[in-house]
Each structure stands twice: as C-alpha cells, then as structure tokens.
Amino acid sequence: MRNRDGLTLGYRFKWRLNWLLLTVAGPAQQSDDTDPRRRMERERAALVAQLRAERAQG
Q1: How large is the C-alpha radius of gyration of the chain?
Q2: What's the pLDDT at 2?
Q3: Calpha distance 33→31 (Å, rounded)
Q4: Any long-range contacts for 16-24 (C-beta under 8 Å, 24+ apart)?
Q5: Measured between alpha carbons, how far is 33 from 8 in angstroms, rounded to an integer?
Q6: Structure confidence at residue 1 (pLDDT)
Q7: So where are the chain's domains?
Q8: Torsion sign over Cα 42, 45, 51, 57
C-alpha cells in the first residue's frame, strides 16, 4: 500500500510492523471477513478516505 495521505511516519511504521507480525506469527489465512490483516487494510483505507475528505473540505 503506497497511500501516505495524512499518515504520520510513526503510524505507518507501527502499521507495517503489526501487519508483518500477523503475516509471520498470526493466525492461518482466513476469509476476508475474519482475516486480521484484511481488517487492518480496510481500517487504514477508511482512515485515508476520511483524511482526504477532511482535506477536500477545508
């Protein structure tokens, strides 16, 4: 994911570290609804969309 809109370096570092740890030591691959890595990706995409909307408004 290359979207950095409004995301701090610390947030991006922590997010990537958590995502990698889930890849290596997390649960086995699950459906998209229950996979924690996919949940993290959806939450990050929602945050980026929110930050873009805030930037567009003002």
Answers
A1: 13
A2: 58
A3: 5
A4: none
A5: 27
A6: 46
A7: 9-57
A8: negative
The pLDDT tens digits along the chain (58 residues) read: 455 677 889 999 999 999 999 999 988 888 988 999 999 999 999 999 998 898 888 7
Task: Return the percent helix, strand and coil in the chain, to nearest 5.
Answer: 65, 0, 35
Largest CA distance in the chain: 43
Q: Pull the structure tokens for residue 58.
A: 């003002």
pTM of the predicted protein model: 0.79
Please give the Cα distance from 52 to 8 (Å, whole number).
Answer: 14
Residue 45 token pair:
């995409």
